Amino acid sequence: MFHKSRTLALTGIIAQVTEWRMHETGTEACAGGCRGDSRRGGGRRWAKTLATWGMGVVGAGVVLAGVRAVAFRGPYRPPAPLPSEPIIDLHCHAAGLGAGGSGCFVADRLRSNWRFKPFLAAYDVTEAELEREGDGLLIRRLAEGVAASKSVRAAVVLAMDGVMNDRGELDREQTEMYVPNEFVARETARCTNLWFGASIHPGRRDALERLDWAAAHGAVLVKWIPSIMRFDPAEERWVPFYERLVFHGLPLLTHTGDERAFTGAVDAYGDPERLELALRLGVTVIAAHAAAQGENAGEPNLARLRRLMARHPNLYADISALTQVNRMGQLGAALEAGECAGRLVYGTDYPLIHTPLMSPWFFLMRLRVAECARLAAIANPWDQDVGLKQALGVSPDVFQRAGELLARRRLRPNGVRDPMKPYCLSGPSLPRLANVESSKAGGGGTAGTQLDLLTPYSTSRGL
To answer: 20 to 30 A from 353, CA-CA: which of 4, 262, 322, 363?
Structure first.
């Protein structure tokens, strides 16, 4: 309510200043034209326009300062020093166009959508660069950004499975973005500061075999967006998949709450209560974005998540994306929820932290102007994100919990434990991606994939 009223107040100020300026300009234009003295009238119009804008800016500043003086609340929680342990970003996205034989693709409806170009630009790459150097460039840029960070030492890079048809094969027509496990496994194995996050639709006809393959090839978790992948996590037929997750000790990072990054979503599948089955079976579940957006059955999703947390100690929630301008107040709600204490996990939802959706200046009612300016001057997006969340009161345990949850999965295929060495590897020992999936459009069946890391995932199945 507070953020909504503040936004409306500021919008009203801007609207009033704009309306005043238009009224004055229109009046003077008529007067100048009637007098026939275009030079004198034009000069007067410009002078009055500038004066109007100047008074409007000053007036808006005075009003904003007054509102801020009355409404300033300070951080959600008292800030504390960062932990001495390395910070792991649990939630970073990969993408690709299929360049370099990656097997990735983006549907035309998403590629032509206004969301796509800012999304790609946030990785500091262009479509031309990807076509020339391959989709692996995008992950290398991500590794460079993490390596330059003073706060974050490693990041989990997420694959993205798609929609399945009735035969348990990839439905390319319904899938908006596809990032194969084989591609992410290969590229993250090149970089000691990146970890492999697998994505496997439980409705694949070979879902269990793919899960075994991912675990053998260094996956540290499995990522779902059920509202985009179009399946209900509560269905009993996923029990074998959940049991296999428990067997491998792989956490499930799954989107909760409404989904707005794609052109279409079934938001009912983001209801936290649909995770009850997985939790009862012992899966470690991490609710992405803390279910902080939207509602189901007339109840806020966060309230439904809190009720689940009270019943299941194996349920966690990440705080990725909760400082975006379209999510104002959601970080505070998660921090202030008693059931979430000791259960929150640090993540960014990169590349969205590197877009105009996120800025310290959005928190002028929580942070001092000097603090906002200091944070805004931080160039590295991970350092800025950590600094902002720390300033808002995210506690040290939240920043180090990802490392604790992933501790059982830290041994990488190349034998490197913990991201403390130079971030990229090179040489003939690198894994080789073979028999890459065809990028041809059409139903379900294309060539299988194989990644020569530990043992090949030998399959003649479709995508």
So the answer is: 4
Taking the alpha carbons of 182, 185, 188, 189 in that order, is the dihedral positive or negative?
Answer: negative
Q: What is the pTM of this model?
A: 0.79
β-pairing verdict for 432-434 and 299-300: unpaired
Position 52 in a domain: yes
Q: How many residues in the chain? A: 463
Residue environment code for 117-135, b if the CB has 16+ CB neighbours within 10 A, otherwise e: eebbebbebeeebbeeebb
pLDDT digits (tens, 9 = 90+) for 171-197: 999 999 999 999 999 999 999 999 999
Q: Which residue has the tokens 């348990």?
A: 168
Structure tokens at 178: 């596809």
Q: How far apart are CA 69 and CA 211, in angstroms?
A: 54
Mean pLDDT along residues 284-290: 97
Check residue 388 and give left, alpha or beta (phi > 0: left; psi -120 to 50: alpha).
alpha
What is the spatial distance between Cα 147 and Cα 145, in angstroms, rounded to a whole number? 5
Q: Is residue 432 part of a domain?
A: no
Report the domain count for the chain. 2
CATH number of the domain where residue 150 is located: 3.20.20.140
Shared-domain flag, residues 305 and 385: yes
Residue 431 located in a structural domain = no
- In Å, the largest CA–CA distance within the chain is 87
Residue 353 lies in a domain: yes
* Domain interval for residue 21: 11-71
CA Rg value for the chain: 25
